[in-house]
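W.,

You were right to be curious about this one. When I first looked at the sequence I had no strong expectations either way, so I just let the prediction run and decided to look at it fresh. Below is the sequence, 317 residues in total, followed by the output.
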Amino acid sequence: MQQMTNHRPLAELDLLDDFLFNALLAYPEYGRRFCRKFLKILFGREFKNLNIVTQKSYGGRDTGLHGARLDVYIEEGDEVEIDSSNVSTIYDIEPDKNNKRKDIDFIAQRTRFYHAIIDSRSLKSGQSYDKLKRVFVIFICPYDPFGDDRMIYTIRNHCVENPELPYEDGARTIFLYTKGRKGRDNESLSQLLDYMENTTRENAVSEELEAIQEMVDVVKEDAEVTVAYMKGFERDQMFLEEGKELGRRLEQENTLREKNRADTEKNRADTEKNRADTEKNRADAEKHRAEEERQRADAAVEEIEKLRRQLEELQKQ
């Protein structure tokens, strides 16, 4: 999930843009059709009954706990047979244009959190663990999340000491790298990823993609979608301006706080200087008093000496 950093016209958006992707899947006639096509190309089988929720939010269990908002949450309405087991399956599809290095470096932890929060809400009280739904978290990325230049990375848990040991917990993470060169043997998927990154009629090179392009054209020309996009932009602009205003206010408060701190330090320094000057003046006064006492003592000694000499003169007469 990426945030809108600059405003592009709706007509120029690609299916890797959150807004267009979610608008298409939320569109009444097209959401299920697109998901069926996308999942069929990815997994090579038909998908019939799909329940789709765009921007599904999971709040934290408490006010201090992290929540999550999934771009597209899909659940198969009927149990289907996969790997000889009848299970229900959840698909979380996340177009991710995020190019922040920190977020890319921790994408594994992000998917771990998504799996955990979906699992925690998919098993009802009293149900046994064999009812826990299979979960596929699917990221579609214009960047290479692991640097191995693969079009598709499929991640699952396994035994480290014996990777061939059967261990099926029903959790899968799939990263689709739109520019990956390795593993491009699935031509339909390769074409789909190219198209999603650059959603134009020229890139709709198959019947499936032409059908998707028709849907995209209708969604982009829909008046309600256009209004929602503009409102979203205006809301983002409002948040941006509020953020700038908050930043200016915080900067002013910080400047005032620093000025007050500087004034306090200056006052403290002035107080220390005044105290030092007072001590110096006191010391100078004590020195001056001592000098006066010495001078008086010297004068007294001279007077005594003078009187002694006079006495000696009188005694000689």
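Here's what jumped out at me. The first strand starts at residue 50 and ends at 58. And, maybe more interesting for your project: The longest helix spans residues 223-316.

Coffee later to discuss?

I.
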